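[agent] plan:
  1. take the single chain provided in the ticket
  2. run structure prediction with default settings
  3. attach structure tokens to the ticket
  4. add a short note for the reviewer (M.T.)
[agent] executing step 1
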Amino acid sequence: MKLLFVCTGNTCRSPMAEALARKIAADEGKNWLCSSAGLFAAEGAPIAENARLCLEQNYKIPAFSHAAHQISRRDFEEADFVIGMTKDHQTYLEQLFGKSEKLLALPLPVGDPYGGGPEAYAAAAETIFQGLRLLQEQGVLS
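[agent] step 2 finished; step 3 output follows
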């Protein structure tokens, strides 16, 4: 199953969601191919340092290569599920690509930690993790 996580700039929330989903998939033997993109990404920007540190320290996810990427129609079409970090992301994606059953928002809206300290990133990551678990419980992600 191909999962595409989308936020605004693709440097904080969506790369954290991508990494956390990969961790869940690895831990549980799921066949999830995870990627991320942004609605207004600065192509090639790295993951935010506090996001990287949060993943390493709180979830034992080692540093990984990431370059911010602007979502394209091809990205949207190739994904089985496109998951926005908030309902606003989902709404914007609907405006870009039309309504689709594969277009979702995380059940728990993830505040943007950009520019915040470690606590803001930890809160965002935990919200993402819990949102992913809820999608599993709802049978959306199997």
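[agent] step 4 note for reviewer: The helical segments are 13-28, 49-59, 73-78, 87-97, 118-137.
[agent] ticket updated
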